[in-house]
Amino acid sequence: MKKFLVILSPFAPHIAEELWQEMGHKDSIYHSKWPEIKNIKNSETTNITVMVNGKTRATVQINSEKTEKQIIDMAKAETNVQKYLEGKKIVKSIYITGKVVSFVVK
């Protein structure tokens, strides 16, 4: 509740100050420190389209910290992609960062 009031105070200064005093604080809410924001970028995920011979076969959700090889392996592991890769040779694997994995098969 304290953090909420501190964030609310620039938008509704009078009510925020009054509620701050009701919570038992002697000093003004404007003397309090602004709450710190935790780094949430670590959990950033992206959806990648997986294509086989130019046709979309699946979508994979990846973590932005994965390497290109890990992302290609995840794309190969998708069940809908596997049935198009079975018994065929992968001629080329193309990865466009953050967008698409494409397999050219023969």
Describe, in plain words, how this protein is organized in 3D.
- 32% of the residues lie in helices and 28% in strands.
- It has 2 domains: 2-31, no CATH class; 42-105, Roll (Ubiquitin-like (UB roll)).
- Strand 1 (45-52) and strand 2 form a beta hairpin.
- By secondary structure, it is of the alpha+beta class.
- The protein has helices at 2-8, 13-22, 68-77, 79-85, and strands at residues 45-52, 55-63, 90-96, 100-105.
- The protein has 4 helices and 4 strands; from the N terminus they run ααββααββ.
Q: Quote the distance from N terminus to C terminus.
A: 61 Å
Q: In this structure, how is the largest beta sheet organized? A: 4 strands, mixed
Q: What Rg is obtained from the alpha carbons, in whole angstroms?
A: 25 Å
**Spans with pLDDT under 50 lasting ≥5 residues?**
none
| CATH class designation of the largest domain | Alpha Beta
Give the percentage of residues in beta strands: 25-35%
Q: Count the strands?
A: 4
Principal-axis shape equals rod-shaped
Instruction: Write down the overall mean pLDDT.
Output: 91
Structural class: alpha+beta
Strand order of the largest sheet: 2-1-4-3
Q: Residue share in helices? A: 25-40%
List SSEs in N-to-C order. Answer: HHEEHHEE
| Total helical segments | 4
| Fold-level CATH name of the largest domain | Ubiquitin-like (UB roll)
**Count of discrete structural domains:** 2
